[in-house]
Amino acid sequence: RHLIEEEKSRATQEKYVHDITAFFTWLGDRPLDKQAVLDYKAHIQAEYAPASVNSMLSSLNSLFDFMERHDLHVKTLKIQRQTSLSPDKELTKAEYERLLRAAQKQGKDRLYWLMQTICSTGIRVSELRFITAEAVKLGYADVTNKGRRRRVYLPKDLCKALKAYLTAAGIKKGPVFVTRSGKVMDRTNIWAEMKKLCRTAGVSEKKVFPHNLRHLFARTHYTMFKDVVRLADILGHASVDTTRIYTADSGETQRRQVQRLGLVEPGGIGLGT
After folding, report:
1. Do 113 and 161 touch, CB atoms closer than 8 A?
2. Terminal CA-to-CA distance of the chain, rounded, Å?
3. Contact between 186 and 125 (Cβ < 8 Å)
4. What is the mean pLDDT of the chain?
5. What does DSSP say about strands 84-85 and 249-250: parallel, antiparallel, or unpaired?
6. Could you point out which of 124, 134, 157, 223 has its C-alpha 20 to 30 Å from the C-alpha of 22?
7. Which helix (H) or strand (E) covers residue 170, if one does?
8. Residues in contact with 105: Cβ distance below 8 Å, sequence separation at least 6, in sequence order
9. Beta-bridge partners for 152
10. pTM for this one?
């Protein structure tokens, strides 16, 4: 009830309950004190990545706040901000375009326009429900997520194309991207459909998941305008620090930049004795 009153999303509620249940299952009959929480922190550090550990600790700290047991609070891990993206996980614009061509070739019109909608607006997959026939007519969607409301503008070319898609699909109102049963497409079925494009598109499965389309939007927008504050507003981020993760360059880009500094004398000077 407290999480609902705090207007936490359904996904966040489920995650907190999952994390807290895992902690108390591990705790067993042991007394709930600071040392127990510290021991649990050490336990999950050995099992999970730092970001996952911090996420789990955040759930616990939230519970301790609710219990007014601030003495049980534990510090999260310090994680150095990632300055480059791994090439094997970064979806490039060329690969994105190959995915689009593959969707066309396979006659997957819904997936074809869905990918372009996410990639051209930067919306989250969970926000697809706000892309409605009414929003297409207006040219924008008012999106509410995590207690914040923002206006997402749809490119004119996208609106024109989606109007034609809606007509062909017989959709006159409500969400644009729905399953045969009328439910809004979610992360699971979108991911499954995108995976089927990999072989035809020649793109690694490691790069093909819906959220990478949002990443590509963010990197492209930042490269063009260099305005991380404005980008944070567009993406619906509460913190610019979150946005900076999306704008990280690829490792190859950083390698070329370092190379251009010219701080190593060419010619291969031999070592002295």
Report:
1. yes
2. 74
3. yes
4. 90
5. parallel
6. 124
7. none
8. 200
9. 141
10. 0.70
